[in-house]
Write a structure and sequence with these properties.
Shape: elongated
Helix content: 40-55%
Distance between the termini: 23 Å
Number of helices: 2
Radius of gyration: 18 Å
Order of helices and strands: HEEEH
Strand content: 5-15%
Structural class: mainly alpha
Strand order of the largest sheet: 1-2-3
Largest sheet: 3 strands, antiparallel
């Protein structure tokens, strides 16, 4: 159980990183018709944490997810994503600990 609490901050870091690294659809700096998804980007996995669709972005960051979109953070999605990544790190840590224990005995 201690391992899970160690994994929580790591999960939060991974969730924040996913908001900027996993953008769907990819960044699009050319408006419609060359990029029909212009201004509809969402960042985060598995749930979108940042949303560029709300019209709060400064004009220089239209069509991409960046620090200008931090005002539109979905905190509940950030919490769920943090738990998701923490669970992955926790399970990986448990597996690694079990394999190390088997190797030592």
């Amino acid at each position: 159980m201690k391992l899970f609490f160690v994994c929580l901050p790591i999960g939060l870091i991974a969730a924040v990183a996913s908001a900027f690294l996993y953008v769907n659809p990819p960044n699009c700096t050319i408006p419609y018709p060359d990029c029909p998804q212009f201004g509809k980007q969402q960042g985060g996995f598995p749930l979108p944490v940042l949303d560029d669709n709300v019209g709060e972005s400064p004009t220089q960051s239209w069509g991409k997810i960046d620090e200008g979109d931090v005002a539109s953070v979905n905190l509940s999605a950030l919490g769920i994503n943090s738990l998701f990544y923490a669970a992955i790190f926790w399970a990986s840590g448990l597996i690694a600990l079990r394999l190390l224990q088997k190797e030592r005995s």
